[in-house]
Amino acid sequence: MVKRTRAAHRDAAQGFGLSVVVVGSLAVFHGQAAMAQNATDTHYGFYGNPGLLDMPTAEVAPDGQLSLSHNRFGPMRRSTLTFQITPKLSGSFSYTGTDDLTDEFDIYWDRTFDLSYQIVDEGALRPAIAVGLRDFIGTGLLSSEYIVATKSIGERLKVTGGLGWGRLASENSLGLSFGERDETVVETGGTLNSGQWFRGPVGTFGGLSYALTDKLTLLAEYSSDAYVAETERGILDHASPYNVGLSYAIHPNISMTMAYMYGDTFGFGISGHLNPNNPAYAGGIETAPLPVKQRPSRSADALGWSGAWIEDGRDAPGIRKALAGAMAKEGLTLEAMSLTATRAEIEFRNTRYPAHAQALGRLSRIATRAFPPSVETFVFTEVVQGMPVQSTVIPRRAIEQLEFEPAGEMLAVTQFVDPRALPSDPMVRAEGVYPDFNWSVSPYLSATLFDPDSPIRADLGLRGNLSYEVAPGLSLTSTASLKLTGNVDDLESHSDDDALPPVRSNAAQYSNQFQLNSLAANWYAHPAENVFTRVSVGYLERMFGGVAGEVLWKKPENAYAIGAEVAYVQQRDYDDLFGFQDYDVVTGHVSGYMDFGNGFHGQLDVGRYLAEDWGATLTLDREFNNGWRVGAYATLTDVPFEDFGEGSFDKGIRISMPVDWFIGTPTAETRDLNLNSLSRDGGARLDLSGRLYDRVRDAGQAEVEDRWGRFWR
């Protein structure tokens, strides 16, 4: 049986437990508006993905749907996060605990990753057909594969039948076998158990669902899982392969299931759903923008059209002051301005709008009111971290003529250029912009779940953030935490193996009452066309301090970008806020970024990690044009799987949720979840905030064009 250390339980549960709390809460409070489809349309079984009870179906959820479920029957409990990656492909991550399955632990926990693909959708006569893998990258204890068909008969009845391998062939075997199945249990887990896929005996399963009412559904199935290990252990009496249950939609986005399982025990499940495609407030509830001000005729304002008003050396302090005031009301900051009789360039900071096209639209309307009629061309240059990232050139005449036309017509006459490629006009900096000091204090909760000695451990406290921008591109930043109460530091903290330096496995030792998470000086620059740079010095993250340098090449119109980063860092002391330990390392990566279109974005980082191992990290995200991002990553290095420890290699799921999606009013804030299967020393990268690509990309041409529909909002 696989050995599970206390550290393994702690790390595996930490991110997942927080995800359950956060995503589940969002589904409850925002489910009514967030989903156009009822929870009863696609039922989720006890594995947390489309199914009857224990058996899968060939159904799919709406594209992009996130589903969170918790299910329990007999000795088993399972929490699952499922994502409909494409209209036909779904993926799930589950954390399953079984009581008394081993002598070593009261509850044996196992992580599983599942995939399902609908190869044929349902037609008038043909059923939907799907193929699936359960626990395809784990120890193999819960592994199974299946091919399943589901057909609707009338409006209320759905019938399902399928063939299963692995656990799904341990009951009701057909007497057929496709090759020999590799039944080896992988001690470290985390590796593709492809030697098992669709091999060995074949079992049959089936069932039906019948909608008794619009909210209540009857479920019945014939299971092909004999629960061999559980019955041999004596923790489950598998008296019958038949399961029956009822599912009730207690909310358009939440359903509950009760079932009688295997003639022996009762089961219970609850699932909630949320779809990034359907915001809580469709269209937003922000205040309306100012209307475009049409220019007067030449006869009505001869001086304004003549351009003679610019005779005072191109500086217009009155216009600049009025412009800055109007922009501030819209959450925009005027950094600098250049003005001629026919052209105005505005350098600005966007602190409010996650859709940068909306910021440009608001600024365009303000500009029609701020500048005399002879100014025909507006150049809006967005500044990020003090760097001029992208210039947007818009004809004033187009703003006046297309205000009530589709936003696409405005995009057709808009140009995007690198600021370094523009003709250089003298810029006059706005007063009082630098130095700029910002701070915030907010509560934080850091929780770890499923530790064998304590089911829940958590730290609760306050976290403060400081930012002092001395000059364009030069800033001082700091984050500190004050723990008010908690017991995370009581966890036993150690590495499973001495093969690697403890660069992450000792995280609990940093859970002090007061923690200086970071304190660094940062210098951002845009030294040449399409080239961006950054240097950071100080306490860069909670566990390491030193110096890091980064360079990024990105053209506004390209779907790809290339970057490189190198850092020399030393491990920080556990107790001394400003002290260091003896361990130091040079780490760095070369990174490639690619926008594949259709909402998919990839990143490949190749280089040296904190534990001096060499390898690569591949990340793939599904991105929505409202700011949601759901993705997964995996890191493979030259560390052997047995030295890495349980999980074999670093991997995880990440979700970024825009706050404006929930509240309906513009804000650039996001809530990010990083769900790791395990935290280990191998494949550990420097946790450096504010990397260049993340800063530059959102204000770039591709992202602006993707959300251009909000230009006139």
Written account of the structure:
This protein is mainly β and 713 residues long. Helices cover 14% and strands 44% of the residues. Strands 20-21-22-23-24-25-26-27-28-29-30-31-32 form a 13-stranded antiparallel beta sheet. Strands 1-2-3-4-5-6-7-9-10-11-12-13 form a 12-stranded antiparallel β-barrel. Strands 18-17-16-15-14-19 form a 6-stranded mixed beta sheet. Helix 4 (317-329) runs antiparallel to helix 5. The longest helix is centred in the first third of the chain and has 29 residues, at 6-34.
Map the helices and strands.
Elements: H1 6-34, E1 66-73, E2 76-84, E3 89-99, E4 107-120, E5 128-134, E6 144-153, E7 157-166, E8 173-178, E9 200-211, E10 216-222, H2 228-233, E11 242-251, E12 254-261, E13 265-274, H3 302-306, H4 317-329, E14 332-339, E15 343-350, H5 356-370, E16 377-384, E17 387-395, H6 396-401, H7 407-412, E18 415-417, E19 428-429, E20 436-451, E21 454-471, E22 474-486, E23 514-528, E24 531-539, E25 544-553, E26 560-572, E27 580-597, E28 600-608, E29 614-623, E30 629-637, H8 641-644, E31 650-658, H9 659-663, E32 670-676, H10 692-697, H11 701-706
Parallel strand pairs: 15-16
Antiparallel strand pairs: 1-2, 1-13, 2-3, 3-4, 4-5, 5-6, 6-7, 7-9, 8-9, 9-10, 10-11, 11-12, 12-13, 14-15, 14-19, 16-17, 17-18, 20-21, 21-22, 22-23, 23-24, 24-25, 25-26, 26-27, 27-28, 28-29, 29-30, 30-31, 31-32
